[in-house]
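Researcher: Going back to the complex we discussed earlier. I've cleaned up the inputs and rechecked each line, so this should be the final set. Can you rerun the prediction on the complete assembly and write out the structure?
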Amino acid sequence: MASENQWVIASALVASLFLSFGIARTKAGRDFAAILQNSGSWIVLLIPVAGLAIGLALHEEHFALMMLATVLIYALACIGLTIQFGYAGVINFAGIAFFGIGGYTAAVLGGMGLPSLLVLLAGGLVSAAIGCILILPVLRTKGHYAALITIAFVLLFRSFLEVNHTLGGPQGLRVESATIAGQSLFTGIRIGSFEASFYLNYVLLALVLLAIFFLMARFLEKSWIGINLDSMREDPVGAAVFGVNVAYWRIMSFVIGNVLIGIAGATFAMMQTFIAPSNFTFQQSLLMLAIVVLGGIGNLWAVIPAAILVVVVPEKLQAISEYRFLVFAILVVLVLRFRPNGLFPRSMRNFRKEVGQ
Amino acid sequence: MAILLEYLFNGALLGVIYALVAVGFTLFFGVLDVIKFSHGDVLTLGAYSGLAAFVSLELLGLDLPVVSLIFVLVVAMLVTGLAGIAIGQFFVVPMRGSPAFNILLMTLMIGTAIHECIRLFVPGGANPKAFPTLLPRTPIEIGGAYIRLDSLLLLVLGIGVIVVTNWMVRHTKLGLAIRAVAQDGDTAQIMGIPFRRVVLATFALGSMLAGVAGVMNGLYYSEINFNVGVLLGVIGFSSAVVGGLGSIWGAIIGGFSFAALQTVWVLFFPEMSGYRDVFAFTTIIVLMTIWPTGIIAERYSERV
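Model: Rerun complete. Updated structure for the full complex:
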C-alpha cells in the first residue's frame, strides 16, 4: 500500500514536470499565463478560494494541512524575495535569516502576551529593522560583493543563535501559539459535526496573509513603482539618468521584502510552536532561492507551484526525502544552465496595449 | 608571552589554510570574472579523496609515513584538479556572460550536490571521520611555548605551496598566459593564447590548492566532515573579497586577516570564543562597507 502510494506520487511528480513544460511551451499554456498576468485584481481571489477548498477537503489530516500551511508561508516569504531580487535586482542570500528573525521575534514577544496579529506585524518590522543594518553595505556593493554581504550575514546569524543563551542556544525557543479575537489557533474549529485539525486555522491565517501581500506585490509590479524597479534592475545608470532614485528604491524594495519574509517567519514559528537555529541554515536559504528560481525569476504566480514542488514533494516522497538537497541542487543547476530565467519566465509587460486602452 | 606565541602560531596556520582557499577564488575571478562557489566543497572532496587514498594504502599493507603523505596529497590534488576542470568545462565556462547571481547560485548548488553526495554515498558520511596522523606530533619548545611539530610542518607546507603558486603565476609561460587572459580575454585570444585551455588550467590550479587545503585542514584537526567546506568556502571567499578579488597578494593578506580576526577575538574574550565567527563576519561586512571592492581594489573600475 505504502509503496503503491510512493509510485502514485512519483508519477504525479513526473506528470507535473511535463505539464509545466507544456504550460511554458504551448499556446494554451501561454494564454493561461497571460490571463493570470493581465486580469484584474479579482484573479488573486483564486488563491484563497483554491486554498480554502483544499483546506476544507483535508480538514482532518494534520500532516497534509501542515504541509499546505508551510507551502503558503514559504510562498509568502518568496514573494518578499521576488520583490527584492526579481523586481529590484537586490541580491539577498539571507532570506532564511530574516525568516528566522521574524520567528525569534514571535517567540520573544509572544511570550510577553502581546496580541498575535501585533506579534506578526512586529516580526516583519523587526526583521526589516535588523535588515536596515545591511542597507549601507548592500547599497555600496554590487554583484559578487553584495552576495558576500548577505551570505556572511546568514552565517553570522546562525552562529549567533547557536551561542546566544538568552535566545535558547542550540536548543531553541518555545513559541506561543497565536490567539486571534479570543480564539486560540491551537484548538481546532468545531461547528456542529464539523471538526477540523488546528492546522486548518493556520492555513486560513496564511491564506489571508498570502492573498493580501500577493495583491500588494501585484499592485507594486503594475504601478509606476514597478516600472522604476524594472528599469533600475536592467540598467541602474540609465534609470538614474532618467530621474529614478536608484538608492531609494533599492532600500525600499529590500525593506518591503524583509517585512514580508519576517511576517512569514513569525507565522511559521507560531504554527510550529518551536524554533531552533537548525531551522535557519544556509541550505534552507538556498532552498528558498531555489523556489524563486525554479518558478521563474520575477513571476509571482510561479512561486506557488515551485513552493509546492520544493516543500511537499520531498515530504511525501520518502524515497527522495533523504536526497532532497541533492535533487533540488541538481534541478536548480540544470534549470540555471539550460533555462536561465526559470521554468516560467516572467513575461515582459506590453506597454503599448496598456497605453492604447 | 608563551600563550601569545601559541595563539600567533595557530592563527598563522589557520591563515595559511584560508589563504590557500582564497587564492583559488582570486584566480578564478581573475581569468573569468566569476565566483565559483563550489570551491569550498571541492576542498571537502579533496579531504575525502585523501582519506580514501590513505585507506587504500593501508589495505595494501604499505606503511611508510612520508610516502603515504605524498600519495595522499597527490591523490587529493588530482581529484580536485579534475573536479575543477569538469565544473569549469561543463558549467562555468558556458555560463560566462550570465548575471553574477545565476553563476553564484549555480555553483553554490553544485557545491551542495558535491557535499550531499559525500554525505549520502560515502559509508558513514553523515558523521565526522577521523583523519589519519601522517606527521610526527612531537611537541617542540620555542620560548616557553609548546608547538606541535606537525603544525610547524603544515605551516611550512602551506607557505611553500603559496610561494610556488605565486612563482608559477609570475614566472612561467602558463602564468603569463593566465595574467594575459585576466587582463583582457579577447585581446589574449587574438594574440594566440588558447583561452579555454588557459581558463581550465587555472581552474585546475586553483582547485588543487583547495585539495592541499583540505588535506591540511584534516591533518590539523585530525577530523573531517562533509560540511567542512561550506564554512571554509565562505571564509575563503570573504578573504579574497576583502583583499580585493583578482589580486593574489590581496587573497593572502585577506586569509591571514580573517584568521587574525578570529584569533584576536579568542585572545581577548576567551569566555566568549563562540562569537568569534560572528565577530569576524561582522568585521568583514564593515570592511566591505568602507572599501566596497576590497582593500587592494580591482584595477579596472566601472566607467560611467
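Model: Worth noting: Strands of chain B lie at 129-130, 139-142, 145-148, 223-224.
Researcher: Good, that matches what I expected from the previous run.
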